[in-house]
Structures are given as C-alpha cells and as structure tokens.
What does this fold into?
Amino acid sequence: MSLGVTEIALILVVVLVLFGGKRIPELARALGKAQAEYKKAKAAIETEVNELKDSVEKAAAEEEKN
It folds into this structure.
C-alpha cells in the first residue's frame, strides 16, 4: 500500500485545514525532535545490546578455557 501524489496532496490539505498555517511549523518541529529522540534512544539500546553480547561472548570464551 503506497501513497500516490493525489493522496499526499489530500492529506496535506486536510492537515492545513485542521491545524492552520501557523501550527504546521510547530508540529513539524515537534515531529523532528521526536524523531531525533527516537534515533538517539535506538542507538543507545543497540550499543547496550552489543556491549552485553560482547560480555556474554567473553564469559563463554573464559568458561571454555577453564
């Protein structure tokens, strides 16, 4: 399911009517900040998972040596 040009234009018109021209930049800024926070949290979780994976692999390697 993909959106065509007409569907996107219709959505933009509805958003413009509902929120008005003054609120759209505020909404766009808020969405941008939310997206940045999401990416930051995702990167932090990936880093934590990789560190945990490395420590488990190290522990397994140490266990094999003993």
